[in-house]
Amino acid sequence: MLDFTHLEQYRENNRIEAKKALGGLPRSIWETYSAFANTMGGVILLGVEEYKDRTLHPVNLPDPERLVREFWDKVNNPAITNINILSPKNIQIRNINGNDIIVITVPRATRQERPVYINKSPLNGSYRRNGEGDYKCTREEVLGMQRDALIIAPDMKHLPHLSLDVFHFETVHRYRNRLKSYSPGHPWEGLTDADFLCELDAVELGEDNQMHPTAAGLLMFGLESAITREFPNYHLEFKWAEGQFSSGSDDLSDNLCDFYFRVCDYFAKHLATLPAGIKPGTMPYIHEALREALSNCLINADYYGSCGISISLLDNCFCFRNPGSFRINVEDAKYGGISDPRNGTLVKMFNILDIGDSSGDGLSRIYDIWQQMGWDFPIIRETFAPDTIELTLKMHHNDGHKLSGSTGSFATSQSNRRLIISYLTKHAQATEEELTDFIGLTASDVRELLTDLIELGIIEIKAPAVYRLKA
Length: 471
Known about the structure:
Blueprint: E1 16-19, H1 29-38, E2 42-46, E3 48-50, E4 56-58, H2 64-75, E5 91-96, E6 99-106, H3 122-125, E7 127-130, E8 133-136, H4 139-149, H5 169-182, H6 193-199, E9 203-205, E10 211-213, H7 215-221, H8 224-230, E11 236-240, E12 243-246, H9 256-272, H10 283-299, E13 309-314, E14 317-323, H11 330-335, H12 344-351, H13 362-373, E15 379-383, E16 388-394, H14 410-427, E17 430-431, H15 432-439, H16 443-455, E18 459-463, E19 466-469
Parallel strand pairs: 1-2, 11-13
Antiparallel strand pairs: 2-6, 3-4, 5-6, 7-8, 9-10, 11-12, 13-14, 14-16, 15-16, 17-19, 18-19
Helix pairs in contact: 9-10, 10-13
């Protein structure tokens, strides 16, 4: 909650929008409602004016109760908005120094609710929020949100126009050999390739009584030429200091299965040449984290999106970038325990080889391992237009300081970050010393948390050692 006794300290930003509303509900309020709901949520202040110096000041609303009633009538009107995601607790009338204002807290909509749009048109009435205000979503952004809202995972899509000749059966055989090594005597061992693919949900029986690929089967085992016909923007790329490889550039099949194991091989070669200082007993955990990050990137990508997958390894820094937005709250993903993968069939295909985590704890496990190693805190960025998720893992030590030794578990670290955000929400800005006193950690611990929040784009430095929420 904002500190309304010091409203002038705040600025309009990607989470706060101020409107005078002296002439009634402004038309632009519905664009902001849609934008906040489709992005990260935010607060709409009615009866608040932004001065030329960008400071916020209350202007007394003559009849706030009427405005609230009008707002409820319109937010529930399908001709204005397609869905009301608010409850009574989300709207309050506050009095600031004798001035009545209205505070509307808009949460981030769930993936099943997105896109939240206005004027009965998802393609022309869906908005998102950036640092400069509300902007109309592109067609690609809207279609991406609609795909995420589906109950059936997009990778279960049946492709009756394709036959089994789109599969790279050498990849299928390599996959089957790995399964045989991992799970000797598996009941699928004696199946034909077609029956094996059917058990994996890589193919389905069509109305013509013939087997046809699913989207997951095509992505996992298909030929690159066939994959790109179904997914025009499909592209896989891996870069490292000495070179790179990408789909379509050599004689490999360029499907997800071959790409995954090829990248893992490069990770293993790189880790084998790391300088002294990493204990041999910790190497399996590092491998585990990198494999989880890679499989997570491939499993949660929106392959119908407008860009491809990019993995890079430069200066002991691993970066995993995939198209698509988060389907659950980012903080929930970091805590673990909530699983909502975009491509559930790909999850099954990887899990059967003991690759990836289906419980929702994979990302949390990566954070735990990186903290135990004492390396820089993992960074997650979610960007829009186009929708992308980027995970950065730096194998750089924090001056010998391990977060796990002072801030405790990953969940505790997340709690401390939320405390910083809460404090800056209430006080608009704070010094490093004030935050250290408030949280009760050492200065180095707080500095580490602040660095992470800056890299996440949540806070910014206003002056040396003075911080505030990013505008």
